[in-house]
Amino acid sequence: MENSTEGRRDGVWAQPYSLASGQTQYHQLGHVRLWVTLLDLEWQIRSDALEPGADLAGWMETIGHTLPAATIPVQRFIRKDQSSTVTFVPAVANRPTVIRPYQPLTIPAGGRCTIYVGTPVWMKVCVGENQSLLTEIPLALPSLTWVGKNTMEGELCYSSTSFARLVLEAVPKRPWRTVTPVTLINRRPEPLLLERFSLPTPLLSLYRNERGQLWTPGVTVEVETDMNSASLHVDESVLAAAGTCLPVAEAREKLARGRLVRAFDRVFG
């Protein structure tokens, strides 16, 4: 059953929405359609994935009494109290994300550059003033890849292709993706060919600017000698070009103290 276009609005991250018993809030963003229903004794969540390539540039939401077809599965959650608010909190990926530029990028000896990488976020559905988590939903279907020296030593990561844009204005700003500035510094005496690298997404916090766009702090990768001894540092703040930003979600994993997070022997796969 289709949702009425009447009352459609832009969705907003980290903003409480209030529902009355019997109402359903419908969302469409990224590759996902989502229905959140409040009943007297329970919350119900239904979702399905759109065909690849069918994602929209924006985020549409509406509140009404329309449910989807019965073929879409439902998750049921006991309502702990009489709170009727639901908040949608973004979350970074729970695994590192291997970024593969569509065209490899060469950084000359002693050179540096900043690329802007977009990665999908997860949507946490939280209810009540304490934002109790009901479930979280990926807003794009991630593919998995293994990064390591062999099948026994390494880690499972998400895989994402990227245009590795060098100009911020050229980066599409979508509510279901976050932008991470990655500064690559090549201190070696020879050029560095960037074919892929591992972005430590679980270490990144999320911020929302005044236009509703999601950003993470910048990441700096330095290569001094061998590519397998690259060091990585996560900035403490968001790039000034992101605009005025407010924090909306903490990192999934805590950063180590000090400038050097750790030496990543698999930064470049």
Q: Can you walk through the features of this model?
A:
By secondary structure, the protein is mostly beta strands. It contains no helices and 24 strands. Strands 11, 16, 19, 20, 21, 22, 23 and 24 form an 8-stranded mixed beta sheet that branches. Strands 1-6-3-4-5-7 form a 6-stranded antiparallel beta sheet, with no helix packed on it. It is elongated and about 65 Å long.
How are the secondary structure elements laid out?
Layout: E1 9-10, E2 17-18, E3 24-29, E4 32-38, E5 42-49, E6 60-64, E7 74-78, E8 85-91, E9 97-101, E10 105-107, E11 112-120, E12 122-127, E13 132-138, E14 143-148, E15 154-162, E16 177-186, E17 192-194, E18 197-199, E19 206-209, E20 214-215, E21 219-223, E22 231-234, E23 245-249, E24 262-263
Parallel strand pairs: 9-15, 16-20, 16-21
Antiparallel strand pairs: 1-6, 2-8, 3-4, 3-6, 4-5, 5-7, 8-12, 9-18, 10-17, 11-16, 12-13, 14-15, 19-20, 19-23, 21-22, 22-24
In short:
This protein has 269 residues and is an all-beta fold. The protein is built from no helices and 24 strands. It is elongated, with a radius of gyration of 20 Å.
